[in-house]
Design a protein that fits this description.
This protein is mainly α and 228 residues long. The radius of gyration is 18 Å and the shape is globular. Helix 1 runs antiparallel to helix 8. The chain has 8 helices and no strands.
Length: 228
Amino acid sequence: MSPVKNERNPPELNTPREAFLLTGVGGSVDAVGVLALGGLFVAHMSGNSAAFGAAFGQGDWHKGLPHLLAIPVFVSGLFLGYLWILKKKTFRRCAALLVVEAVLLLLFAAGIHFGIGFPAALPALLAMGLQNATLREMGRSSFPSTYVTGVLDMLGKETARAVLEKGGTAAADARRAGAIWLSYATGALLGSAGLGLLGIGIVLLPVTILGVLAFHFFRLATLRQTVE
């Protein structure tokens, strides 16, 4: 059976629009977390790793502890997401993961609204971990969607290859990496501006995007079953 028609073996696509939308979600949620939770990253664990180390090195345990605690929570989200997807790689499971993520982000918004402090970050940290288990394991993108350090590394590498090879596939890969970074940065900008204009209600935007993507993946699963 052709892998294009088999839900368990989804097609390898370079970077479909879902990747850009999810990366925008990651950027917007991270920006809201930074602004609403005193500089805590809910998607970017390199930042939290540096922040807790810097604070602990100065003896400021109280300031550094939230950054340290955020890391195992995020990793737990990664673990649970990959456990779910790797067990059976289907679009239906991908859709379910995005629905759970949307619910977690609503809890995140509620926690910030009621001013509960660091506990408000827990559902967002789990959500961002879960998000990373969606597209890459489904063959829909080779990029992470909640942090961009690796994306920038790829941008630099592929740009160097493009210079040496005078274009080719490396140039296309560099453009995709740059577009992914731009999606993340745009999401962060919109999340920040939206927080100032709409308050924590801005989280409804990424929640809506997740809902649309969940429906999209559920529809793909249904279409594949129909074709089969």
